[in-house]
Amino acid sequence: MIRYVIVAVVSAAITACATSPTGQPQLQLFPEEQMAQMGRTAYQEIKQQTPVSDDPEVKRYVRCVAEAITDRVAPDTNWEVTVFKDKAANAFALPGGKIGVYTGLLDVAKNQHQLAAVIGHEIAHVQAEHSNARISTTYATQAGLSLVQVLAGGSGQEQQQLMGLLGLGAQVGVLLPYGRSQESEADVLGLEYMARAGFDPRESVALWQNMEQANGQQPPEFLSTHPAHGTRIEQLKAHMRQARALYKRARNQRRSPNCD
């Protein structure tokens, strides 16, 4: 099995050079269905480890926001949305159409537009295939065999590493955040996604101002793989004109979500 995976990956490397939606080069060694299976497996593990909210109103609200975006961005994917009962101000999306939102996020994302900014950002990571790029780069630059063993059914620390590369670092205790360029790309794409769905993109700035207040003092930007809140806000403002044009078009086409 391991040999089969190695041969398949090496063969795929011939055509593995790809570009992200904004034109950034990235390595993609793994086929879409294999990434989707990894995402589905990781999602089931998180559901087993973390309590799921049983509040019908909260679930309806979160799903309403998520579905408004996925219906515009990836309508052919059968998305599953789960609300986790946890104080963390967090959310994630995984290959295979899986979205998780933590109830703690609702204390920071004050309305449907701000929640849409987070969900749009996480869906952007999936649509841009950032997980594939991260896993592919890890496979290509480290010993490699351990990652192949994970794909062939490994467990323990290797499985945690894979889940971290999928974007679940905070959930499994492995700090593997997306890089700055991927975070910035997801911010820009997420802004577009929420606007196309009929959510007010200006609320994305308010969201990160809320995040800044909730998280307190951040380390200097050069010490972090994530952009500083101030940098993030400025980047969002720089793309706001285009996003507002998309928002106006969505409203003219009667796309006006009423999730609150």
Structure, explained:
The protein has 260 residues and is mainly alpha-helical. It has one domain. The chain has 11 helices and 5 strands, in the order αββααβββαααααααα. It has a 3-stranded mixed beta sheet, sandwiched between helices. A hairpin with a 5-residue loop joins strand 1 and strand 2. Helix 9 runs antiparallel to helix 10. The radius of gyration is 18 Å and the shape is globular. The protein starts with a helix and ends in an 8-residue tail after the last helix. About 5% of the residues have low confidence.
Q: In a nutshell, what does this entry contain?
A:
The chain is mainly alpha-helical.
What is the topological layout?
Layout: H1 2-13, E1 17-19, E2 25-27, H2 32-49, H3 56-73, E3 80-84, E4 91-94, E5 98-102, H4 112-127, H5 130-141, H6 145-151, H7 157-172, H8 180-196, H9 203-215, H10 229-238, H11 240-252
Parallel strand pairs: 3-5
Antiparallel strand pairs: 1-2, 4-5
Helix pairs in contact: 2-7, 3-4, 4-8, 4-9, 5-7, 8-11, 9-10
